[in-house]
């Protein structure tokens, strides 16, 4: 059972109670978890392609692999879809942006936690939030005010640098506490049903990570159409099909293609000041410890078992 409740502008862990009430996890279920813009959608796509061996589905990615704990999501619809998938014997893939102790951890499920250099992530998160439609922002503000009693809206600064400073100083700007999420999943990294995946490793060795993820979920990569899967999990391929790949089909955004902004080409060194970079690094070290902070930065954990460090 989740050990705490987490609610903010974009997330609500309460829906997991409803998920458990309708039967919870089945053997083979998969949860993809991470802070925003760390590579969740990319990893969801990889899992979809592995499970379908490179075949394309008619439905969009989020219509089969929901972001269940989105504060503004259609929870009854997503729960109904997951119930239908369970009854049909399908392997389910569920997306979450919550800390590990706010999510049910079940031995029959598999959990992939995706990390990304936090400085690149913060910049990308600003771009994502700025692309939310006015209607979506109004819905988010209404829901947040309803449960929190605070009518102050979520106002995203136009300038990325200003947002980055506020996001770092306020533990996530009321949207997602990066260090809390990373720290909680890092603590589970040695569990046999938890796998750490890193954006940098996906960028540098996509095929190798596809094989690694396939093995983790019990699929023999030797039987996969790896050339096709790798091509169809590429950033450009996904961006060209943004309406199929973006969360909610991009319906919550002004332009779905904006979800796939710079992606693997992003480099925080050209967008942040040296002072901002150093301030982030100090915060990461203080809140995560040296080993976890190094993994978040580079994707390398020299002290971990071979399965995690690959």
Task: Describe this protein's structure.
The chain has 310 residues and is of the alpha/beta class. It has one domain (15-309): 3-Layer(aba) Sandwich (Rossmann fold), CATH 3.40.50.300. It is built from 15 helices and four strands. It has helices spanning 15-21, 40-52, 75-87, 118-130, 134-148, 160-169, 178-186, 199-204, 206-216, 226-232, 235-240, 242-245, 274-288, 290-298, 306-309; strands spanning 30-33, 93-96, 110-115, 194-198. The protein has a four-stranded parallel β-sheet, with helices on both faces. The longest helix has 15 residues, at 134-148. The two termini are 30 Å apart. The mean pLDDT is 92.
Question: Main attributes?
Answer:
alpha/beta; Rossmann fold; about 300 residues; four-stranded parallel beta sheet; 15 helices; about 5% strand
Element layout with pairings:
Blueprint: H1 15-21, E1 30-33, H2 40-52, H3 75-87, E2 93-96, E3 110-115, H4 118-130, H5 134-148, H6 160-169, H7 178-186, E4 194-198, H8 199-204, H9 206-216, H10 226-232, H11 235-240, H12 242-245, H13 274-288, H14 290-298, H15 306-309
Helix pairs in contact: 4-6, 9-10, 13-14
